[in-house]
TrEMBL record:
The twin CX3C motif contains 4 conserved Cys residues that form 2 disulfide bonds in the mitochondrial intermembrane space. It is a peripheral membrane protein. Residues 1-20 are annotated as: Disordered. Heterohexamer; composed of 3 copies of TIM8 and 3 copies of TIM13, named soluble 70 kDa complex. Associates with the TIM22 complex, whose core is composed of TIM22. This is Mitochondrial import inner membrane translocase subunit. InterPro entries: Tim10-like, Tim10-like_dom_sf. GO terms for molecular function: metal ion binding. The keyword Cell membrane does not apply. GO terms for cellular component: mitochondrial inner membrane; mitochondrial intermembrane space chaperone complex. Mitochondrial intermembrane chaperone that participates in the import and insertion of some multi-pass transmembrane proteins into the mitochondrial inner membrane. Also required for the transfer of beta-barrel precursors from the TOM complex to the sorting and assembly machinery (SAM complex) of the outer membrane. Acts as a chaperone-like protein that protects the hydrophobic precursors from aggregation and guide them through the mitochondrial intermembrane space.
Length: 87
């Protein structure tokens, strides 16, 4: 079987449609983007806000991480909006 769940020796009528392939690719890209976003936020915000890692976050560390994530997501949204307007 190929990665789309049909055997490669099947007739073309059982091949996945272009729409199904595009949908699967979009889902995979969205998942990869989400994973990259989480890793970026973890790296940037955790490293910036948590100076002495322990078993839990202090109130100030928690606030710092929250503000950092909010700022990063806002900036990412502004950039995305600007890029879509340029098209």
């Amino acid at each position: 079987m190929d990665s789309f769940g049909s055997s490669s020796s099947s007739s073309s009528s059982s091949q996945p449609s272009t729409d199904a392939i595009m949908s699967q690719l979009q889902n995979q890209l969205a998942q990869a983007y989400a994973e990259e976003l989480v890793e970026t936020l973890r790296g940037k915000c955790f490293d910036k806000c948590v100076t002495k890692p322990g078993s839990s976050l202090s109130g100030s560390e928690s606030s710092c991480v929250s503000r950092c994530v909010d700022r990063y997501l806002e900036a990412t949204g502004i950039i995305a909006k600007s890029l879509t307007q340029m098209r």
